[in-house]
Amino acid sequence: MANSPSGDSVTDRLVRILETFTPTRTAQTTADIGRRAGLPSSSAHRIVNELVDAGLLERDDERRVRVGMRLWELATRSSHALRLRQAALPYMERVQQRVREHTQLAILEHDEALFLERLSAPDSGANITRVAGRLPVHASSSGLVLLAFAPRDLQERVLAGPLPRVTPETIVDPAALRRTLAEIRTLGRVIAPGYVDEVSTGVAVPVRDETGAVIAALSVVLPRDAETQFALVELHRAARDTERTLGYRR
């Protein structure tokens, strides 16, 4: 890709534009996109117009820009994440129906827990997770499971810090985090009371692919003082069923 006068490539500028969209910032003006992407106004308008013409972005009735359906279509073709979500969803629905709280599926992406799906009952408790949202691996129950089974170099990179304190209960001591990760590998689950939200407890278990590698975490978010054993039983059952769907045989 050709570089701009400032030295950044076309690909870099495209990525910066797309990264200005978040789960809570779904529509923006072109001027806002340019400012957040650090691009000159003329460049931002030109690139956004080209992306709109290609269907990757679209404009609403107020001339604000949104992510286009064409981008979603392309992203889901032959997507590993889509296959995983489709395999897990029936069993997540069973967990959610029985536990009646938030049920989530996450994968490891750029040293964070990226959430592919979340199911919630109308009366479910507090939860800060969103589909396509991210949480720190050291603070969230899903993240801790993913980190515990991640490659050693990734673990060491996270353990080297920084480990931001999200709540007073977040594990920020590397030695304590290392012990927690070893415990997760031994027990095959984690219970994280108040780690990422003071009023909630995250409970998570690993999901393996056909090779036996951990590729995802299934979790529920319960009220802080709720009993966790029933949720763990349901999560383990859902994880096993998902793994069989993916081709893993214990």
From TrEMBL:
**What PROSITE patterns has UniProt attached to this entry?**
HTH_ICLR (PS51077), ICLR_ED (PS51078)
State the InterPro entries in the record. GAF-like_dom_sf (IPR029016), HTH_MetabolicPath_Reg (IPR050707), Tscrpt_reg_IclR_C (IPR014757), Tscrpt_reg_IclR_N (IPR005471), WH-like_DNA-bd_sf (IPR036388), WH_DNA-bd_sf (IPR036390)
- Pfam families given for it? HTH_IclR (PF09339), IclR_C (PF01614)
This protein's UniProt keywords: DNA-binding, Transcription, Transcription regulation
Q: What is this protein called?
A: IclR family transcriptional regulator
- Cytoplasm as a keyword of this entry, yes or no, is no
Limits of the IclR-ED domain: 70-248
Domain named HTH iclR-type is located at 8-69
Q: Which GO terms describe its biological process?
A: negative regulation of DNA-templated transcription
Q: From what organism does this protein derive?
A: Microbacterium testaceum
Q: Which GO terms describe its molecular function?
A: DNA binding; DNA-binding transcription factor activity
Bilayer-spanning residue ranges? none
SMART domains per the record? HTH_ICLR
